[in-house]
Amino acid sequence: MSKRLQVVMSESELKDYEKAARAQKVPLSEWVRRALRAAREAEPGTSVDRKLAAIRAAAKHRFPAPNIDRMLEEIERGYGQGSSE
Fold first, then answer.
1. DSSP of 38-83, one letter per residue?
2. d(Cα 72, Cα 78) in Å, to the nearest integer?
């Protein structure tokens, strides 16, 4: 079932949104729905369970790596090789 959402805003803000909707050749209501979906997707919403599953999956892999002191030394040495801008 659909629900109606009422949002109060200034006239100038509404005109800006109407202009943006016209530019995309969609009704204002569709433009608003798209904007709300994009905002929702931009929010960090990954569940703790999904994050833990990803960490567990990554931990199963084995890659060769030097000890931390050697790794830091190689990183520092690499900084000196870059071009100076």
1. HHHHHS----HHHHHHHHHHHHT-------HHHHHHHHHHHHHHSP
2. 10
Q: What is the pLDDT of residues 5-63, one digit of tens each?
A: 999 999 999 999 999 999 999 999 999 999 999 998 888 777 888 889 989 998 898 88
Residue 2 lies in a domain: no
Domain range for 36 is 11-81
The rounded radius of gyration (Å) of the Cα atoms in the chain is: 25
pLDDT of residue 16: 97
Asked if the structure places residue 59 within a domain, the reply is yes
Structural domain tally of the chain? Answer: 1
